[in-house]
# Entry
Amino acid sequence: TADPELVEQVLINLTLNALQAVDGITNPQIKLIAELDSQSRIVIHVIDNGTGIPEENREKIFIPFFSTKEGGSGIGLSLSRQIMRLHQGTIGLRSEPGKGTTFTLKF
# Structure
């Protein structure tokens, strides 16, 4: 079981980040995909074809108050990680600059 409001907050945070990542690119796409993995655990992917996250920032993005966005608070992803931990889950990412990012939530 999961707290629907907290999980919704994680999905809102990830979707808002994806919206910012695809802003201004040609043919922007954001996908949310839910599935069960091989062990019947819920997995949700938030995928965009935006600017991607530079490798040097990938470890830092979950640190509270770290932000590369002008006016960004730097709490969205750190809060999302905490919420996933509360649900005994994980949040991971794959990203390639110029090609997009996938955040994966595993419950």
